[in-house]
Design a protein that fits this description.
Layout lengths: L20 E8 L5 H18 L3 E9 L2 E8 L1 H16 L3 E9 L9 H27 L8 H15 L4 H14 L15 H11 L3 H7 L6 H19 L7 H16 L3 H16 L24
Antiparallel strand pairs: 1-3, 1-4, 2-3
Helix pairs in contact: 1-2, 1-3, 3-8, 3-9, 4-8, 4-9, 5-9, 5-10, 6-10
Length: 306
Amino acid sequence: MLPDSTTPGQREDSDDDHDCWPQLLIEWTDWDNAETTAARRLHPPLATAEHDGRLDQWFFVRKHPHWRLRYLGDTAARTYLARTLEDLTATGEVAWWAHGIYEPETLAFGGAAAMTTAHRLFHGDSSNILAYLARQHAAESSPEPGRRELGVLLISALLRGAGLDWYEQGDVWNRIARMRHTGNDESTHPLPITRQQRQNMQRLMTADAASLAESGPLAPIHGWLDAFAAAGSTLDEHAQRGQLERGLRAVLAHHAVFAWNRLGLSAQEQKVLSERATEVVMTDHTTEESLIVDAETPTEIPPASC
């Protein structure tokens, strides 16, 4: 279960120093299997340290050739993490590691108040990602959503939590798509989308997570979805109180890209998913009966074809 996002009135337990945190640069011996190793060998010690109070918040960022582990903790936490990484180096799973300094992108995430909210979401998201990956790698087949589907579900929860209407959500999806366009793209036009792909995407974007979590495939990630919704709600509160230093939709789009990077979605996957989500919102397909979603019927999670 993720910790609740910080509300504007809760500052006593915020990360007071937004300018720098300690971080660890980790170079895995096998980059392609780094997430499996992290889920199996790094997450348990992190969870233990968090449980016994040696670590407060922590989260990771994938940035080749390193994973960057950022954390809040004292000297005991630094020593504990160093020992953990030395053990992984001795077993050959880590090739190299070093201490460093993390400087938050405070303005990009909306200012100091919003950065506290972001850090809490980063922490819970990172822990849930590693737990999700451990479950995925442990099971031959998993009833949980695939990575792309999960990415859409989480960001949709964030946008709905922020109180955005359907077309405001479409604007955020379009912002994400623009952020994921590069100078190497052969075309600035979105890839063609089939009727089935539109239908699958719409179902993900409008899924009733509460109903599906009762006994369905979303049960293991219910708290994860709730935390994204709570973070969106808190960011909206910051915006309503004039505490954001960027527009709400710009901040939400920035969160989406960072969340998808943590989840391990490639830039191309992010581009395609956000383009398809934009297409679902901004193109009128109401004449196609197959795209109409019955609001009274719990939406099923579509197969991994979005």
